[in-house]
Amino acid sequence: AIAGQLADKHEKSMLIRRIKLLEIGIMLLGACAFLLQSPILLIGILFLMGTQSTLFGPVKYSLMPQALKSEELVGGNALVEFGTFIAILLGLIASVYIIGMGNAAISIAVVLTACAGYWVSRGIPPLPAAAPELKLSFNIFRQTVNIMHDAGENRTVFYSIIGISWFWFFGITYVTQLPNYVRYDLGGSEQVYVLLLAIFSIGIGAGSFLCEKLSGRMVEIGLVPIGAFGLSLFGIDLFFNQGLSAEGSALIGPVAFIAQASSLRVCFDIFMLGVSGGIYIVPLYALVQQRSKPSKCSRIIAANNVLNALFMVVASAYGLFVLSLGVSIPTLFLIMSILNAAVAIFIFHLIPEFAMRLLIWLLVHTMYRVEKTDLDKIPDEGPAILVCNHVSFVDALVLAGCIRRPLRFVMYYRIFQLPVLSFIFKTANTIPIAGAKENKEMMDSAFN
Q1: Among the ranges given (106-120, 168-182, 238-252), the one the predictor scored with the smallest mean pLDDT
Q2: Is the model more confident about 305 or about 241?
Q3: 3-state class of 100 per DSSP?
Q4: Which of 31, 94, 111, 341 qualifies as a cystine partner to 107, CB 3.0-4.6 A?
Q5: DSSP code for 184
Q6: How far apart are CA 322 and CA 332, in angstroms?
Q7: CB distance 281 to 167 below 8 Å
Q8: 423 beta partners
Q9: What pLDDT, on a 0 to 100 scale, did the predictor assign at position 243?
Q10: Element (H or E) spanning 212, and its range?
């Protein structure tokens, strides 16, 4: 909650550099902890790194709407998500080799990595404070309540945050159990685990950039249901792809693992889980950034981080509880996939806009081939009227699928009442209208 306030009140590039300097200080303490081989001190450093990351998160995500054009927002989030998972992967691979060199090498590596982060941060251009008049409060409980209230002001933003938090609930279950799944269910070594993590990370990147391509450089939340469906589908398939472990007690390496008949299916499922995750998470982050009040964007992202952390802690406890009952890891993955489908249906029921945008996206990209010109003439803000020739009953949907700015359509009420389409029109806040002779009250309501 405090991190969100700081990110809204202060100029962001300065704040990032100070947070990165804090990281260098923490890593110097971390180097001492490694050299002293003190578990207690190392746990303390881990806590401080979590705190430093908490300060960094709201700044990182809230600066993007300021630094990027609206049509670049999805691509920016795609780069951030891909970069995050690649950094995790590279850090894991590097640590395997650095740990073998001794504590001195580890100490040097963590300090140099922190210094590199600060050096890169100096290239960030100045970004004005969103709410410089904000008075800081260090009452954590009260401010946590306040930022949750800020997040709840926009219903779509709040449920998008719930959707993001659920993704981390789902993801942390897989990430924490993946090493044991590789060892005990696939009979693979640590190198096989790194291989699957690499495949998952590349999948996240592929899904993130595919999301930008499919969205037409706009925040297209119609892709979110596709990502959610993919997470469940490929998680279920992973459950039915069991019995791959090599004979004998020796753990197999990547070459022997790939040589097994069904291993490619495991790799494919892990890759597609990553792709689905990228398609799912990128539009949700972009939507939160786009629809949050600029003066409160950092605090709303801080609220997102609070809920993310809560969901991840509950996910870890849930995984331990289920496994303690004797449930196998593949069965845990199956349960999570079914739960994911249920949660997705529940969220899309609460916010029908997701389903409506999916139908529009499918319509525009399957039944029609739409050529778009002069979209730049539509202003980003302020009043504007679009007058279109009436080609079909779905003109409103085609236009909504091509134009980044949300539109509201005036529509003859008999078309508005058509079965199936009426759900879409109502969700899009279409305005039904009638002639004065047919229904004077409806005509007056439409003009109001």
Answers
A1: 238-252
A2: 305
A3: coil
A4: 31
A5: I
A6: 7
A7: yes
A8: none
A9: 55
A10: helix 190-215
Distances (CA, A) of 44 to 30, 33, 50, 157, 250: 9, 9, 10, 34, 37
> Above 60 in pLDDT, residue 246?
no
- Give phi and psi for 217, each to the nearest 5: 60, 35
Q: Which residue has better confidence, 146 or 369?
A: 146
328: nearest Cα among 159, 156, 177, 145: 177
Please list, residue by residue across 195-232, b when 16 or more beta carbons sit within 10 angstroms of its beta carbon and e when fewer do.
bbbbbbbbbbbbbbbbbbebbbebbbbbbbbbbbbbbb
Grouping H, G, I as helix, E, B as strand and the rest as coil, residue 252 is strand
Nearest to 131 by CA among 77, 66, 198: 66
Closest CA to 4 of 156, 144, 161: 144
CB 299 within 8 A of CB 4: yes
What residues contact residue 328 under an 8 Å CB cut-off, 6+ apart?
A: 185
Q: Round to whole Å and give the CA distance between 113 and 118.
A: 9
| Spatial CA neighbour of 184 closest among 239, 238, 261, 251 | 251
**377: Cβ contacts below 8 Å, ≥ 6 apart:** none
CB 311 within 8 A of CB 169: yes
The Cα–Cα gap between 319 and 314 comes to: 9
Maximum CA pair distance of the chain? 87
Q: What is the pLDDT of residues 23-66, one digit of tens each?
A: 999 999 999 999 998 899 999 999 999 999 999 989 989 898 88
Beta bridge partners of 253: none
Q: Distances in Å between the alpha carbon of 273 and those of 31, 199, 232, 280, 365?
A: 36, 10, 8, 10, 23
For 127, the 3-state DSSP assignment is coil
Report H helices in 292-328.
Answer: 297-324
Say which range, 15-19, 165-169, 280-284, 401-405, has the weakest mean pLDDT.
401-405
**Prediction pTM value:** 0.81
As a whole number of angstroms, the distance between CA 57 and CA 422 comes to 41
